[in-house]
Automatic annotation (TrEMBL), chains A, B:
GO terms for molecular function: hydrolase activity. It comes from Streptomyces tuirus. The keyword Manganese does not apply. Pfam families: Beta-AFase-like_GH127_cat, Glyco_hydro127C, Glyco_hydro127M. Keywords: Hydrolase. Residues 523-633 form the Non-reducing end beta-L-arabinofuranosidase-like GH127 C-terminal domain. One of its GO terms (biological process) is carbohydrate metabolic process. Residues 27-414 form the Non-reducing end beta-L-arabinofuranosidase-like GH127 catalytic domain. This is Glycoside hydrolase family 127 protein. PANTHER family: DUF1680 DOMAIN PROTEIN (AFU_ORTHOLOGUE AFUA_1G08910).
Amino acid sequence: MRENTARSLVLPVAPTRGRLRPLGLDEVRITGGFWARRRHINATATLAHCRDWMEREGWTGNFRAAAEGRIHRDRRGREFADSEVYKLLEAMAWQGAAYDGEVAALTDMITPAQHPDGYLNTAFGRPGQQARYSDLEWGHELYCHGHLVQAGVAQSRARGEGELAKIARRAADHVCTAFGPGGNPGVCGHPEIETALVELARLTGEQRYLDQAALFIDRRGHGALADAEFGRAYYQDDLPVRRAEVLRGHAVRALYLTAGAVDVAVETGDDALLAAAVRQWEATVARRTYLTGGMGSHHRDESFGDDFVLPPDRAYSETCAGIASVMLAWRLLLATGEPRFADLAERTLFNVVATSPSEDGRSFFYANTLHRRHRGIAPPADRVSPRADSGLRAPWFAVSCCPTNVARTLAQLPAYLATVDDDGVQLHQYADAELTTSLADGQGVALRVRTDYPSGGTVAVRIGRSPARPWTLSLRIPAWTAGVTVRLVDPDGQRRTVAPGTAQLTRLFRPGDEIRLELPVTPRWIHADPRIDATRGTVAVQRGPLVYCAESADLPDGRDVDAIRVDPSAVPEDGPDGTVRAPGELVAPADTAWPYRPVDEHSPAATDPAAVTLVPYHSWANRGPSTMRVWLPTTPPPTTPTRR
Amino acid sequence: MRENTARSLVLPVAPTRGRLRPLGLDEVRITGGFWARRRHINATATLAHCRDWMEREGWTGNFRAAAEGRIHRDRRGREFADSEVYKLLEAMAWQGAAYDGEVAALTDMITPAQHPDGYLNTAFGRPGQQARYSDLEWGHELYCHGHLVQAGVAQSRARGEGELAKIARRAADHVCTAFGPGGNPGVCGHPEIETALVELARLTGEQRYLDQAALFIDRRGHGALADAEFGRAYYQDDLPVRRAEVLRGHAVRALYLTAGAVDVAVETGDDALLAAAVRQWEATVARRTYLTGGMGSHHRDESFGDDFVLPPDRAYSETCAGIASVMLAWRLLLATGEPRFADLAERTLFNVVATSPSEDGRSFFYANTLHRRHRGIAPPADRVSPRADSGLRAPWFAVSCCPTNVARTLAQLPAYLATVDDDGVQLHQYADAELTTSLADGQGVALRVRTDYPSGGTVAVRIGRSPARPWTLSLRIPAWTAGVTVRLVDPDGQRRTVAPGTAQLTRLFRPGDEIRLELPVTPRWIHADPRIDATRGTVAVQRGPLVYCAESADLPDGRDVDAIRVDPSAVPEDGPDGTVRAPGELVAPADTAWPYRPVDEHSPAATDPAAVTLVPYHSWANRGPSTMRVWLPTTPPPTTPTRR
């Protein structure tokens, strides 16, 4: 690893060391296409939607009630409701000047609720409430402080230090005093404070914040928390972070914790801790991740399942876990430079993060199932919905962590597209974008990326400004291209075939030079490891980075997706408007009184040949209630098993 | 339906009307074999085990604390802990005279805790506690009263009315006063009081108990309870009982409620309500039941999943749900006489109820998974275990409903073997047994059944005493014999082939006559309806009524059950000691960084041919920590899919 000398301050994550140096929101702009549309809706609809719902549900009002001394009887929402206000503030800060007024107004509401010693939480610590830190397992007080700190860091970096940043810093100082050496020896049931404190240390240069984050990481796994019904693995207190082999327990908790561990490892030069995080990520991606990049296969405790327990119909795949996975992957990419981390981030962004918000940015999936058997009913427009009912997107949830998390992620998304290092520029994610930065020697570089990725696979990179010396343009060749031919065309028109990983072009670039990457985004059948019991005998379709699904809206005569059988010996083809046509048939199994029978008995099933229309998974449930499946059963083998 | 004139009073369920008349514990004795062994262990080990754990955990002590006025600070266990004491008392009452002393001692402890108006609960209603019935959703007060009433009924019928029966009747009177017309309009979050009140009405002839039960059934489904995070279906308050099409929500709640609905329907002649229960049972058995008869596929809320959502690895299949399913099936069998209800009861008894207790009767499964991926660790011998960790049986649980439920079920099991009607005797379950009863005209019949079922399939019925007129012996021909040849041999040695359903032999029987039923219990491959996604591409083995499983204890070199691939084109065969040998192979899939790949790529897997030893599912995990699976993946099709 090397030292980073950041050129920009507008960075969600700003490690002082690492293989790659991130670019700020002032250095990369997304100018069109898939993500520009979603960022536009986020800025113009989602932020106001979140603010309105929090006002309506009383979550912002909690701060007023606290200041007015009536919180013990008037508090609304769950114990972590404060954090939603902070996440919205963070999103607004990254979004820029247009939200300065909103940020100031919300901050004015929060300020009087802070205790003189910096503690800030509307659910604990006042007369008539539970005592501070009396329920570290479930109280989420440090979690809320963490989101406050992240909002403060965002304000400092994106808009310049204001009142919010000051509140946040006072809260962080309080946490260090309360939980520092000799203080409360506990940790929070929900990790989050760790990444926040490291980022504040990066912003301020204050060692104590980093030390406190490292202390929280090291305390965990030694019985810091009380036993829980779900077991101590639920909040990762079963094993010390550096000894664990795989992520387990509550998925968001596990991923935030590991992101925090990477932050601490990078800042303290703790290579063993970084290696532990990489090892856990590898095992998790190899054995506990859905095709979409989604993580978490248990509804009961919103947790990872055992290895290869990935039932499509019970996929929890929480939106926030997808976001946390992108956060972790980004930190590992910066630390190591390895494209596999960007591969998972791409998959998760397109198939989890982009799936959550509706087209109008005013409703969301909390969980992202890969198989929906029943048409949902429209959720209420005027009250909160249960979080994991994944039939249709809902405007707000009783536990509503996902909408504000999507909002802050989309607001900071341009920062995840590219990096620089001593040798040049690395493009990790492909979008219509403009990039203006400088290399390690201070010489300026400007690029313009044009693509309709992921609809199309051609990515054109035009050099705007370039040093008068050779440098290296690195392009991630996605892992999903394994087995197909990817071509890179250099400014001279020379084409070469490149393999998954990183393609590098080192030369003296001139303004106007264009580099073209040709990624073949044709639909392909995908099958799963046979150890995933729940997808045996099925295939899925992926086209470029996009996972596809069948939706009942595209079937004739009110038929259901469970009737679909596809034929993987034939080829899926592009259909109109970004759809895919999969060869197969529709079956109608006969109803029986008992669903098990000897192998030599057969239940008749009527079949109709059909080419089944598939749509991108991220777009499902935008046409009203529908059934849906990603993994499609294959046509059964033609012959009857015969006894011998 | 006709009126029943019971000859025996020692009946767990004593409908006044119905197609069949049940026999009492004084009319049927189990004399040997599978169930005799389990009943012996139940009587000699399990009952004392339950009593000792409840004393140790303070659940019996709660009654002392209540009487001594210190319950508000000393209460132990969950809100429904009282009910475990009542279920144990019920088991002891059915078990007979040997437990009279224990019953009296426990009753002496309970008596002073009853309020003058009959209310009895150690968790509510005293100074410093929550008010009575202030939490009908979760408080379980009517549930506890229900189990108290069932214990009282058991005492009255099996041992003659004593103090326990008097307490129970006072409690029932209180319930009718408190929840009768003009009283509290609520219902209990956990159904149970309904069956109890009907049984008390049957015992006492008091109409008010029946009316109250009918009122509880009718109130449900009209928003009687508050909204719950799991949805109102969780406690069956989403739809009126008579309008529902299938069982849903918490499995034990759903099954107890439906059993209560059948009881009310039978006693009030409400054919529409009975038809609704039958319809829901049919849909549940056709689409929401595991091969074992187990019910409930969600851990999150211990509930039924959607239709065909039956993941083996997340099977909750709670022991108590199995017991409740037997209770419901028995009531439907008595009402209708249809053998399909006895078929499900048999399957559930052998594969769920018999699976729960260990061989020594001192540890239990709470949940009964059909697939265990990790070897469990031995649960603590000296403290309670989490309820759904299904790796190994545990001595006691924080929520410990199952051990006492198993105990009371085994204690009353002989009552489920046979019935009589105007025409003769019906044998529903096969066990070494002696039966002495009388037909409708009062003439005596005695039978002796000899069999080593389910190990062997020959059932010999010897007539001991018989009226000097023709009558009909009916034998259930299990549904699992579909497709194989079953023979019935009459006393003259005449053999005939009989089909699944009921075989009847009407003749003038003489003492010494022997009827022989030959059920071919050879192992057979079973496959599941293709709509059960989680078992696609797998088969199971059933031998007679027993479901089999592979256990890692039987694999070489520490191999794991997930390595097993079986070949359903070859025939499974009997192995030694009740095992089955299944033809197949062991595979070792290569580890990969990402578990999804295009269909035309192949992951190499080393394979070794092997005949895999299978054991009866009920016996698994009796040899220490093991992995286990019921559904075995089949060998993949021989050819690679090719594009065309």
